[in-house]
Amino acid sequence: MNNELDLVAVRLIKEKTYYSDAPVNSPQAVVDFLKQELSTYDREVMCVVNLSTKCDVINLNFVSMGTINSAVIEMRELFKASILSNAASIVCCHNHPSGDPTPSKEDIKLTERIGLSGKLLGIELLDHIIIGRGNMPYYSMLEEDVLPVGNMEVFKREVSKIKGSNREQML
């Protein structure tokens, strides 16, 4: 009887580079960074921005490409690159080809699953952003208080600034 055990190695492979001069440290910054790419798709696409402990971008992973109104997201696929990249936190982002960034019930449930899965893995979900079409409206679950605010101070500060400026505009 021959007992063999294969040794395997798992590595990230760099496919393409996206570049931004601005730091990606707020929901608006994530939208500005990804809007050009996500606006080109005629179907839903989910991507994950992997971040370091200081919220510096490590890399970007396209997780799923679906249909005109849905995409299948498996947690193991969503977090695979995050784990391999030693990410401390993530920002999930997907598009709505219809143009309306309002989250569906499925989007909210998915966000809850991602948040819970991330807690188990020790990878914090900072935000889930939905990008529309045209003039690129977006919906940030963090800004809309759908997503519980985590421990990452950088995102908290930026969202507070945004909310503060919105209040000043309303007064």
UniProtKB/TrEMBL annotation:
<dbReference type="InterPro" id="IPR037518">
    <property type="entry name" value="MPN"/>
</dbReference>
<keyword id="KW-0479">Metal-binding</keyword>
<feature type="domain" description="MPN">
    <location>
        <begin position="23"/>
        <end position="147"/>
    </location>
</feature>
<comment type="similarity">
    <text>Belongs to the UPF0758 family.</text>
</comment>
<keyword id="KW-0645">Protease</keyword>
<dbReference type="InterPro" id="IPR020891">
    <property type="entry name" value="UPF0758_CS"/>
</dbReference>
<keyword id="KW-0378">Hydrolase</keyword>
<protein>
    <submittedName>
        <fullName>JAB domain-containing protein</fullName>
    </submittedName>
</protein>
<dbReference type="InterPro" id="IPR001405">
    <property type="entry name" value="UPF0758"/>
</dbReference>
<keyword id="KW-0862">Zinc</keyword>
<keyword id="KW-0482">Metalloprotease</keyword>
<dbReference type="Pfam" id="PF04002">
    <property type="entry name" value="RadC"/>
</dbReference>
<dbReference type="InterPro" id="IPR025657">
    <property type="entry name" value="RadC_JAB"/>
</dbReference>
